[in-house]
Amino acid sequence: MKYIDEFRDPALARRLIAQIHATAARRANAQPIRLMEFCGGHTHAISRFGLRELLAPAVELRSGPGCPVCVTAADDLDRAIALADVPDVILTTFGDMVRVPGSRGQTLQAAAAHGADVRIVYSPLDALDIARQHPQQEVVFLGVGFETTAPGVAAALLQAEAEALPNFCLLSLHKLTPPAMRAILDVGEVALDGIIGPGHVSAITGSAAWDFLPREYAMPCAVAGFEPLDILSAIDALVQAVVAGEPAVINTYARGVRPEGNRVAQNMLAQVFEIGPANWRGFGAIPDSGLTLRENFAHRDAVRQFPVQLTPAPEPPGCRCGDVLRGVIVPTKCALFRRVCTPRNPVGPCMVSAEGACAAYFQYERECVNGLNGFF
Q1: pTM attached to this predicted model
Q2: Total domains in the fold of the chain
Q3: Quick check: 224 pLDDT over 60?
């Protein structure tokens, strides 16, 4: 467990933590300020550097649905596994996806062991290379991710069009982040005071994508980078906004995020994708939260090119990954956590992904009982 002396600027970290505690103490109802870090990258940084313990009991941090592997619905995983079994199909995917269990415990890794051609790639351009090298086979790229990774996929599809490469297509499971945040707030299962906005996503969408939070929900949002000091700065800004009753979008990651975002990436997405519904693990269907291929890219849509029969199945018994993704519980409250579900034998995707909350808690967290005791 890493603590303050291992921060890049320990003195600044101490000042920020002390300021957060002092500001939170001025809250009229004396309740902990509950914030949600949307991004899985933030979850792992928070756990690795002990921020939950350093900020307790003034601030309570809940993890959100910002792990694209984790929010991939079991039915969508079943489709990917079924596609891998289609003759003459090479299914390409990022490494995290191969161990994520589908609705019946199957995985892409197991499909490969039984003869399916499943290949791990590091970018969609790698998948494009495989299509060039194997012109007699169809190469399907499993597109999983948020606004951060989708532009790279769009670029690969545009390149395939430019080359008239006929054997490259996409299973698009890409999702948009603001609709998921709306869904959490609209359902109201967990009371939140503020949102730590995702830095990488916001570099594409712009910090303005989160303007609806203060406008419609009177909730502050601070866009944060990924260093522990970045996250502390964002939390400090949020705590001040909550105590002052002045909700706003605060960009504490100005070195990486502009209000308008990345226009080039946005235009590329608009060329290739249109917005539609998407299924999220733990949520079900969320309107206007997915990226589907436009009609002029229908010949590169794996769903249309390779229709497969799927039988809906329930989530694994006892797995509460969906509740973790909605912020309803922390991972340690799942009865399977660490007893049955481990990184070596995961029951749900939150224990598989490098951005999964359960994996972060398993690796780094212990119960936050002492607050600041012993950390200074």
Answers
A1: 0.92
A2: 1
A3: yes
